[in-house]
Design goal:
alpha+beta
Length: 583
Amino acid sequence: MKAIEIRNKYLKFFESHGHKIIPSAPVIPENDPSVLFTTAGMHPLVPYLLGEKHPEGTRLTDFQKCVRTVDIDEVGDNRHLTYFEMLGNWSLGDYFKEESIQMSFDFLTKELEIPVEKLSVTCFAGDEDAPKDEVSYECWKKAGIPEERIYFFGKDDNWWIAGEEGPCGPDTEMFYDTGKEPCSENCNPSCSCGKYVEIWNNVFMEYFKDKNGYSKLKQKNVDTGLGLERMTMLLQGKKTPYEIEIFAPVMEELEKMQKVDDIQSRRIIAEHIRSSMMIINDGGVPSNVDRGYILRRLLRRAIRHMNKLGIDLNEISHIIDVSVNALKEMYPELLENKENIKKVIIEEKDKFVRTLQNGEKEFEKAVKKAKQSGKNVIDGNIVFNLYETYGFPAEMTEELAKEQGIEVDNKEFDKLFKEHQEKSRLGSDQKFKGGLAATGDMEVKYHTATHLLNAALKMVLGEHVHQKGSNITSERMRFDFSHPAKMTEEEKQKVEDMVNNWIEQDMEVTFKEMPKEDAIKSGAECMFIEKYPDIVTVYSIGEVSKELCGGPHVTNTGKLGRFKIKKEEASSAGVRRIKAILE
């Protein structure tokens, strides 16, 4: 069964059970206060999980395009991906454990025809914060899973929360038995031996966690996620996602083109090109900060591995063609935007080639220094500097050094590289800390303030201004917007005064549900209009702001406090960034 068939079966199944199919949100979040990318299906739905009414009702289903960046360095093994598709279904205060579990069981065993013998499940064991999940246990037994294949585990395995604060709850997870021999007598779904592969996660979201601990949400929600690539791999009897139809044509083409055989490099190129195309398609551009940096890193890593395989870098255009062709049924928008995607990737490739040329000059200096010292060894910190500053792959440094009869200090490089990886991981984790899921009073105020800032920028700078992203914590807001030039001091002061004037007017914040076409006709501001469902929510602040948005917002602007711009700077080509606080 192909991935597109599994996706369609999933959406049709849940539609037949009263769920409205909603579009995938972009991988670059529109109104998400925290994350670089959409990392899970629930991210765009947090306001509704917290109690806001969704215009499409209480039962929803979709496929969500996701990007997770913490494991970039792991891509190349047989399982890690940075871009993936998550199938999901939600109950917003509607059904709960029993109906959710029965539907999951029926979809797996009837629609996908997975034998019950292949399935095991896990439930929450209970602790001081929440009781043991006996209800899920009984539901699974009633559905048809024998009790010896129902396991209980603690929070590390069976509790889900996005970030450190926010809506959360116990979950029940479904596992597919690959048929491998058990690793021990106690082998179970918590093992990482590969016998059991997690395929679906149903979160029973009835709690909210903040710095004071856990409290009950005003409604009980169900939030589920099924990884499409993984499920496709298992149903096709493949060992890795790189063997399914999404990647196979690219992998085969790379094998024909390569001069050096390296499956890890082929996987990195295929995966990173796909991820980059999805990010660029949703508005991403390479830069040195935030999501632009992630995109640059993905592309440069792919290019480095093309070098490693001995593939002419100009062939990147052909690789894009092959990848788009493999994905066009699932993502027709890639075919429509192929030329722009190519343009962005080729420009980044050309920049990287120039960077590598500069790195070669630094390498020559390092060789000269090593020979003069009589050690005939290039220090690990120099190898790392070539990698970090110039994007010069360590293996390329080693290869060139060998040609010069010189060794490199790999031990020191490995140490520095591991430290770099840890810092990157911590930095990435920090981006997600207290994110959209941690929607407290200050985050709600800052989110509302972005609407006022957007409106003020349009009035002061011109109608060409559009929001390009936001990042919010409880301490400050950051707002990216389209504008070609640095703002003057006078412009910044005008924007600040305008926002504060609207705050002092204590304008009412209202919302209205309407068809998408009517929202556009009414002049509502939005990004990615095609990604919204047919019925949308439009938030208005007095007569000054009208935007498509999911919330959450304050009820009156007078609650915001005093708005202060702290900094205005470049974010990427044609995009400026404002950092501001509410005092």
